[in-house]
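Handout, page 2. Input:
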Amino acid sequence: MQSDATTVDDYLEQLPPDRREQIEALLETIRPAMPEGLSEEMGFGMINWVVPLDREPDTYNGKPLMFAALASQRQHISLYLMTIYSGSTLDEETFRARWQGAKKLNMGRSCVRFKKVDDLDLDLILESISGVTVDEFVEVYRRERESRKKR
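Output:
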């Protein structure tokens, strides 16, 4: 379910009450963990935390570099953790191995899918968010982008 909301508040208002409650609870937990230098905005129909273009203008699609995102989907809520996908300090394999959530991990490459915040391993999620600075994230992105150009 992609939203056409232009602000986070509008996005939250459009959600059914049960979803809104879960997303607001997660926002309350993860917002303080977001590294300094990120912007919170709407993009791709979901809440995004991005590296602003004035910090990293050379992105593959001309849009701000996504650090993390949160979205209400049809059957679940998705939390996208690009720090895991980017191969930063806590990679996907390590994240999967260390998962201690109340429910079995339902994860794509960078996307943790869940129905209730109580099902999550919040400590591990917070570590994956706060464990990477914006500078480190941008450096990994640049290194990865250069290596892809050489292929």
